[in-house]
């Protein structure tokens, strides 16, 4: 499978592995994954993707045909390729549990493994962790913007490929969405699936009323009718007349869906039309170009909309489709390591993040410290794998979703309102001392 | 496989299929895929993804275990599910060849098939065509921004999942990139693969010179050394001293890579250091936060950079990660259909796009016309599938890449410079007459 192949990696990972092998460099390495700086439109991020990463690491191996192809490519020495067949991930992973809220520079995951293993997994590790973290972080904003409203992922079609569509459903559910339209996400993750109808269904019929009736008979239990194909209010009137007739047959119109125009204005008029016909029970569901800003305005304005289908802006995280994340070597063979590139210098050593809470339960601030440093607060990085196997009790998707819900309640108010603001993140004295010692030890004249 | 499952779809597609089946609606439908309006930062788009779509349509079918799972889910009637086993795609596809440049409202693909087939494929069809079109359109801008420079896709890690990473390599190569770092894209698509080294490789060694030498011995043919881990110019001096020694062993340093700081300034200083040491043959390769705007400035400023590795901005199309595209029913059972939703009304009927060129060979303008309408100009939609099978002679990736290269030379100058501007796109009189006839025929009082 595409998503499990170890050839889904950057060429340089294999090139480095060959060099490590040639020089017997198989000491223990610690790499950490972190986001350097949050996008301007994000006050917090939410960790996600660990479950898929652990699944990948537990089963990863080079297939015989992959090694055969590498051999035929002539890009690597035969001796090096011989060694790949036995390569497995045997290391440890510590990570923030999925659904944890985090901030810039904080390690969200640490891999401790023999250098070649920790190196090889870099590309796919970032690919898996980055994407779901991007989506969970975006979805969490929508959850905060529309409290108590049903939010459904409609975004498979414009997600970036198959895996993105499937995992966006997972990440958004984890962050608090109610359901997805993606059938496979229901099968693979148990996420509630829901769906309405497309304009093409209406258009394929000669009139809207017939289309509604026909659809009703195949969806008698969870029936949502799309009413904006020609004229939203006229269609609402059709639904108002049709609903009692269907009810007599035991078919209940659950909701109508609006997908275009001024959603608040249409929702008010449609609500009035339905209520005047005694159809107070029919809910109004809206979709079309929604993002957390639009959701927030609709909710604040009191638009009578009960649920939202969110597509493109969710599954592409349209305003921030990528994070400035990195997976960096922090320790090798017992010695801390530090990259000093301009604007991209890293904090060395194996680290932990400690979180402190205010009296009202909201996050007061975090401290990034060395893993061995004594600190108050909740340690956010928790064991996820030991010696290549997942630890017992890794959270289920439902547990991660509960963790995410709790995490959102503990955000400072300004972040819950999606306003600008930042939680203070401090660097411990232990890290600062380590950096000072490393700078002192650096040989300024080491050019040979 | 995830990317071939027909369960990777929206629930409503299956719900509509059940309703179509219940009412014997299997007439011929024509759907068209188009982008309503270009993103503000795009003057043109480039069609891509057809090859993957055709592959999907040729082989698509419900697996027995998928039907079994649908049955167990209780979401559909058993009779309907029985019919799914035999479902295949038997229709026609006409499409702009991959690499074709196009503009807003133009159909880039038309499916003509029995309604259930044309409906079912909607979600994955958009998912496949949208993504590669997004990426090819972004990559084409980079190709125009850095003419004659080597451009390499470095973006797998931050692409949205496995398929996005793999297909971004394909779409960017199609648009004119030289290579990718993704090993699997080399295997699956024959795209040249290239790679350098990561900072972690340098950091894992006690000094840079040792790291360079060790890497050199495993990459004697295409050796690029990363020089910004600690101090770019100091590392360039190390390379300048090391290169003659390696050359004596038959190992040639092909390039150095810069990945941080002011790339133009570093490139000038590094060029001077290398040239002063007689190493004029070592090329300079740059990466880190590049997009077409940065590329354009570096090239215009004459920065001595020979090639670029582009990651995140390419594989997420960061400034425009999604297009406002739609797949809409334009004709069913011989009758044109039209969606009239506010701001989302469609042009009805089966259409064709005709392109006219100025005397200098650049695009003068397009006309969107009915498929049967007589028009001057090049007809852009070409047969891709007939009766469920691909037509003979569908372009290879290399042919599509050549088509893209030609298309970029035929863009008006302002678009080649990535400036604002638009190619005129007209709607034919035939379409306008059809809309008028449909509006006239519409029953204003059809509420039952």
TrEMBL record, chains A, B:
Pfam family, one: NAPRTase
Reported modifications of this chain: Transiently phosphorylated on a His residue during the reaction cycle. Phosphorylation strongly increases the affinity for substrates and increases the rate of nicotinate D-ribonucleotide production. Dephosphorylation regenerates the low-affinity form of the enzyme, leading to product release.
Nicotinate phosphoribosyltransferase N-terminal domain segment(s): 7-129
InterPro entries in the record: Aldolase_TIM, N/Namide_PRibTrfase, NAPRTase_C, NAPRTase_N, Nic_PRibTrfase-Fam, Nic_PRibTrfase_pncB, Nicotinate_pribotase-like_C
UniProt record, GO biological process: NAD+ biosynthetic process via the salvage pathway
Statement: the UniProt record of this protein carries the keyword Manganese: no
Record-annotated Nicotinate/nicotinamide phosphoribosyltransferase domain positions: 150-331
Molecular functions per Gene Ontology: glycosyltransferase activity; nicotinate phosphoribosyltransferase activity
Family matches, as Gene3D superfamilies: Aldolase class I (3.20.20.70), nicotinate phosphoribosyltransferase (3.20.140.10)
Pathway(s) the chain acts in: Cofactor biosynthesis; NAD(+) biosynthesis; nicotinate D-ribonucleotide from nicotinate: step 1/1
Keyword vocabulary terms for this entry: Glycosyltransferase, Ligase, Phosphoprotein, Pyridine nucleotide biosynthesis, Transferase
Reactions it catalyzes: 5-phospho-alpha-D-ribose 1-diphosphate + nicotinate + ATP + H2O = nicotinate beta-D-ribonucleotide + ADP + phosphate + diphosphate
SUPFAM superfamilies, A to Z: Nicotinate/Quinolinate PRTase C-terminal domain-like, Nicotinate/Quinolinate PRTase N-terminal domain-like
Domain annotation Nicotinate phosphoribosyltransferase C-terminal: ranges: 378-434
Top-level taxon of origin: Bacteria
The protein's Enzyme Commission number: 6.3.4.21
CC terms in the record's Gene Ontology section: cytosol
Family: Belongs to the NAPRTase family.
Function: Catalyzes the first step in the biosynthesis of NAD from nicotinic acid, the ATP-dependent synthesis of beta-nicotinate D-ribonucleotide from nicotinate and 5-phospho-D-ribose 1-phosphate.
Protein name as it appears in the record: Nicotinate phosphoribosyltransferase
Source lineage: Bacteria, Pseudomonadati, Pseudomonadota, Alphaproteobacteria, Acetobacterales
């Amino acid at each position: 499978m595409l998503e499990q192949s170890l050839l889904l990696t950057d060429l340089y990972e294999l090139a480095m592995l060959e060099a490590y092998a040639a020089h017997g460099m198989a000491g223990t390495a610690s790499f950490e994954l972190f986001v350097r700086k949050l996008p301007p439109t994000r006050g917090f991020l939410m960790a996600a993707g660990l479950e898929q990463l652990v699944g990948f690491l537990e089963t990863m191996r080079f297939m015989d045909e992959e090694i055969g192809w590498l051999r035929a490519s002539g890009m690597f020495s035969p001796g090096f390729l011989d060694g790949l067949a036995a390569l497995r991930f045997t290391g440890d992973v510590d990570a923030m549990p999925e659904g944890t809220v985090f901030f810039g520079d904080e390690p969200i995951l640490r891999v401790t493994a023999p250098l070649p293993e920790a190196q090889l997994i870099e590309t796919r590790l970032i690919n898996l962790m980055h994407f779901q973290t991007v989506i969970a972080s975006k979805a969490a904003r929508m959850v905060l913007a529309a409290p108590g409203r049903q939010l459904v992922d409609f975004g498979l079609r414009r997600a970036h490929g198959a895996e993105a569509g499937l995992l966006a459903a997972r990440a958004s559910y984890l962050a608090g969405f109610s359901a997805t339209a993606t059938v496979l996400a229901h099968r693979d993750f148990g996420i509630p699936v829901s769906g309405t109808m497309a304009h093409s269904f209406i258009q394929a019929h000669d009139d809207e009323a017939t289309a509604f009736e026909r659809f009703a008979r195949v969806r008698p239990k969870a029936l949502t009718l799309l009413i904006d194909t020609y004229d939203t209010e006229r269609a609402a009137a059709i639904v108002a007349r049709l609903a009692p007739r269907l009810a007599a047959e035991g078919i209940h119109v659950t909701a109508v869906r609006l997908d275009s125009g001024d959603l608040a204005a249409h929702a008010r008029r449609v609500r009035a039309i339905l209520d005047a016909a005694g159809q107070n029970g029919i809910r109004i569901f809206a979709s079309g170009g929604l993002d957390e800003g639009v959701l927030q305005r609709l909710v604040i304005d009191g638009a009578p909309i009960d649920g939202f289908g969110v597509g493109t802006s969710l599954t592409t995280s349209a305003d921030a489709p990528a994070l400035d994340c990195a997976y960096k070597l922090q320790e090798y063979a017992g010695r801390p390591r530090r990259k000093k590139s301009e604007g991209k210098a890293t904090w060395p050593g194996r680290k932990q993040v400690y979180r402190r809470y205010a009296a009202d339960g909201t996050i007061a601030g975090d401290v990034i410290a060395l893993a061995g440093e004594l600190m108050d607060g909740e340690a956010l990085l928790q064991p996820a794998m030991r010696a290549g196997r997942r630890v017992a009790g890794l959270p289920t998707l439902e547990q991660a979703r509960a963790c995410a819900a709790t995490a959102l309640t503990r955000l400072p108010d300004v972040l819950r309102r999606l306003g600008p603001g930042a939680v203070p993140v401090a660097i411990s004295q232990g890290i600062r001392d380590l950096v000072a010692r490393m700078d002192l030890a650096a040989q300024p004249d080491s050019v040979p």
